Amino acid sequence: MSDPTGFWSYRQQREIDAFPTGRLRWWLLSLIVLGWAVEQYEALKNGPVLVYILADFDK
């Protein structure tokens, strides 16, 4: 696990190389908010939300 180019190598550095900006930042934020909102509606059993978003859940 001491490989400097391995999968977990990012944990050895204190700073990240890239930070999402502009449209990418808003796109990632909207995906996170959408996922959180769907999870909340599904957890409260207000109604199935995933069947409207993904057709595979309707089967």
Overview of this protein structure:
The protein is an all-alpha fold. The protein has a domain at 21-58. Helices cover 46% and strands 0% of the residues. The chain has two helices and no strands. The longest helix is centred in the middle third of the chain and has 23 residues, at 22-44. The termini are far apart.
**Strand content of the residues, in percent?**
under 5%
Low-confidence residue ranges: none
Average pLDDT metric: 78
Work out the number of β strands: 0
Q: Based on CA inertia axes, which overall geometry fits?
A: elongated
How does the SSE layout of this entry go?
Elements: H1 22-44, H2 50-53
Give a concise summary:
The chain is an all-alpha fold.
Q: Tags for this entry?
A:
about 60 residues; mainly alpha; elongated
